[in-house]
Design goal:
Blueprint lengths: L2 H20 L2 E9 L2 H17 L3 E9 L3 H10 L6 E5 L3 H6 L3 E2 L7 H6 L2 H7 E2 L2 E2 L5 E2 L2 E6 H6 L14 H12 L6 E4 L7 H13 L19 H15 L18 E7 L3 H8 L3 E4 L14 E6 L5 H11 L2 H11 L2 E2 L2 H4 L12 H9 L10 H16 L4 H19 L3
Helix pairs in contact: 2-13, 9-10, 9-16, 16-17
Length: 416
């Protein structure tokens, strides 16, 4: 081989290597700084993704959770969104309606679509397009103290089908309240005013046959302030008036300190509750009133329309949404794995696991918060109404005010 040919081949090789390096696509990913274990998993997954291939490099940007939505909104208005961001599920529709998000369904195989829990697909879909996919969903129900339940001879249901009825539930609450050791039969986490009120308490309204809005008509009048909703509101208010629940708890301590017998909360309390109560901790299905309902929805990944490289962004999402990586995340944050294949890999959530009831509820009785661009106003109005009537306000008046505020937003958006 002559020197010219060697030099030529060497030059071509250099060009090929250089082209490979230059071809790497950099994408920016924003995420909220959640709990420490969750944050550590996200950082680990990004590091592993960057190391395992040289086509896409992820630049991870952490934003404070408390101001996350405000910062994302400001960036959207300034046309300065990153390639990928995570959004709290109920807010996805608002960003999709505003034209900020890139549809994902063309990236997904049919097998992948069918593998996601129905709650995940419901949360991330707006106008027949999938705009967000979460690695996990949330579980919401009552946690109980077994020794108190046994002390009042309460039946302990284990599945959605055999949940307590309304009459059964109210009798158990009354009996628990009568126990000398119990200060409050119910713990509702009333210190956490905000999205918790809508996520946590709207299922009670739905259990009475009401809802936050008429989802077909995009209207709150007659639904949020309808007969069933007023009945639900008066029932919820009565729990505080009768002393069954504490309107002003000192913090998230009542159930852990065993002064409360039942705690209406989510999957995220499994570890601290287990540590505090051990074998006395029992997970109970959402009770049957007029119907059964429980909350759902959590943070999910989206690709923005600002991205010049949606295919590269999808490579990253496809990686973090692999079953093994989903379970790595849910082992850290205690949430429900988003895919059926991941549920099978999860010790607490697989069939027979301590938390499998949450999966059963998500597949049968979970109700998404309204998938509408008006949701930010819906949740603010509902939270204000509940906070006001629990504090002594008139239930009907507060729900009337909330319905009026929501319908004004629908009119402003032009979607009713």
């Amino acid at each position: 081989m002559n020197k010219r040919l060697v030099l030529a081949l060497t030059f071509v090789l250099i060009l090929m290597v250089s082209a490979g390096v230059m071809a790497q696509t950099e994408i920016e990913v924003w995420y909220h700084s959640g709990r420490g274990a969750e944050r550590a998993v996200t950082q680990d997954q990004v590091a592993r993704f960057n190391e395992m291939q040289d086509e896409v490099f992820v630049n991870l940007v952490e934003l404070p959770e408390g101001s996350y939505n405000e910062q994302v909104q400001s960036a959207a208005v300034a046309n300065d969104l990153p390639d990928v961001l995570d959004l709290d599920g109920p807010f996805v529709a608002n960003y999709a309606w505003s034209g900020f998000l890139y549809p994902l369904e063309d990236f997904m195989s049919e097998e992948m679509k069918e593998d996601f829990l129905p709650s995940i697909m419901s949360q991330g879909t707006y106008n027949d397009h999938v705009y967000a996919l979460g690695a996990f969903d949330s579980g919401l129900s009552f946690w109980g103290n077994r020794k108190y339940l046994e002390a009042v001879d309460a039946r302990i249901p284990t599945s959605v089908e055999d949940a307590w009825t309304y009459d059964e539930f109210m009798q158990i609450v009354e009996d628990l309240q009568a126990l000398e050791e119990v200060e409050y039969a119910l713990d509702f986490k009333m210190f956490d005013v905000g999205e918790w009120y809508t996520y946590g308490f709207s299922p009670f309204f739905q259990a009475f046959g009401a809802d936050l809005i008429d989802r077909e008509a995009n209207q709150a009048e007659g639904t949020l302030n309808g007969e069933a909703a007023v009945e639900a509101g008066k029932w919820f208010k009565s729990l505080f008036e009768n002393g069954y629940a504490n309107q002003n708890p000192p913090g998230d301590t009542e159930f852990i300190n065993e002064v409360a017998a039942l705690s209406w909360t989510g999957h995220w309390n499994y570890n601290p509750y287990t540590e505090a109560l051990g074998e006395d901790l029992v997970l109970l299905p959402a009770p049957k009133f007029e119907r059964q309902a429980t909350g759902m929805g959590s943070w999910a990944w989206s690709i923005t329309n600002n991205s010049d490289n949606p295919e590269a962004a999808w490579k990253f999402l496809e990686f973090v949404l692999q079953p093994e990586n989903i379970v790595q995340m849910t082992d850290a944050n205690g949430a429900v794995p988003a895919r059926s294949s991941a549920v099978e890999l999860s010790e607490p959530y697989k069939e027979g696991g301590d938390l499998n009831l949450f999966v059963e509820q998500l597949e049968t009785i979970a109700v998404p918060r309204p998938v509408t661009p008006a949701y930010p106003v819906i949740t603010d109005a509902f939270t204000t109404a509940v906070d006001n009537f629990v504090s002594g306000g008139d239930v009907e008046a507060e729900l009337d005010n909330a319905a009026q505020e929501i319908d004004q937003e629908f009119q402003y958006l032009g979607i009713n």
